[in-house]
Amino acid sequence: SREGWELVAAHEEIDVSGGNPLSARDGLRAAVEATEAGRADVVIVAYFDRLFRSLAVQGEVVSRVEAAGGRVIALDFGEVTDKTAAQWLSGTLIGAVSEYYRRSLRERSGKAQALAIERGIVPYNNIPPGYRLGEDRRMEPDPVTAPVVREAFTLRRDGATIMEVRAFLRENGIERSFHGVQHLLGSAVYVGELHCGSKVNREAHEPIIDRGVWEAVQRMREKRAPHPKSDRLLAWLGVLRCGTCGARMVVGMQTQNGRRYPFYRCPPIA
């Protein structure tokens, strides 16, 4: 580049809010850590409001990068720095405007979603199996998949495992992961409800699952299989040894929050 910079790495953040904490910004966090490790000197982004929409994150990133001797630059703004009072004020004002826009947008969209829920209108496009979207943007039973979903709930109520319900859904054209099936069976949308935060419309659309059946399914929990003995096989075989004293490790137990957990440790001294 004309500045004499060499590109070390490029990090993409697709569908990641600029207001997320740094721990949830994989690309930005990697860039900051690269400067701290001495692998990079400058963190560059095209637009300031894509770099920061949180003053807290802005302060953390700038302080960490500058403490490592690096620089933070937005091409549409320039260097983001706290080196002088004027530079701190300029960056903070722009950062505050970006955060204000994010907060304002979230408030408006939240109110719009709550109003839609109140009217029974679906505020999203991901319609769950068993329903289809009507012309008024209200959900209505899908004549093809609704019977399949009803049978899935009946199977689960009668004792079928999540895996068995998943296989049944797959055989009938509804592909879901194990956790996807758990989410489907736990969704109150099937008894006619729509939720948006604390806003609930319990008569938003026609239910396709009887509430008694739905509640019976909610009371069921998949039992976990016991830990196999092979979890501690290394200790039993005597192949796991302490890196400090060379003694053969044994299995100990510790209790946390009322539950017992095995762990490897050196044997007690005789």
Mean pLDDT metric: 81
Structural class: alpha+beta
What's the total count of β strands?
9
Q: Please describe the biggest sheet, giving its number of strands, its sense, and whether it closes into a barrel.
A: 3 strands, mixed
Cα shape: flat
* % residues in beta strands: 5-15%
Q: From the alpha-carbon coordinates, what is the Rg to the nearest angstrom?
A: 27 Å
Helix and strand sequence:
HEHHEEHEEHHHEEHHEE
Q: Order of strands in the sheet with the most strands?
A: 1-2-3
In helices, the fraction of residues equals 25-40%
Q: Alpha-carbon distance between the termini? A: 68 Å
Describe this structure in words.
It is a single chain. By secondary structure, the chain is an alpha+beta fold. It is 39% helix and 13% strand. The protein has nine helices and nine strands. The chain has helices spanning 26-36, 48-51, 55-67, 85-118, 146-157, 162-171, 178-186, 211-218, 233-237, and strands spanning 42-45, 71-74, 78-79, 131-133, 139-141, 194-196, 199-201, 250-256, 259-265. A three-stranded mixed β-sheet has the order 1-2-3. It has a two-stranded antiparallel sheet with strand order 4-5. A two-stranded antiparallel sheet has the order 6-7. It starts with 25 loop residues before the first helix and ends in a 5-residue tail after the last strand.
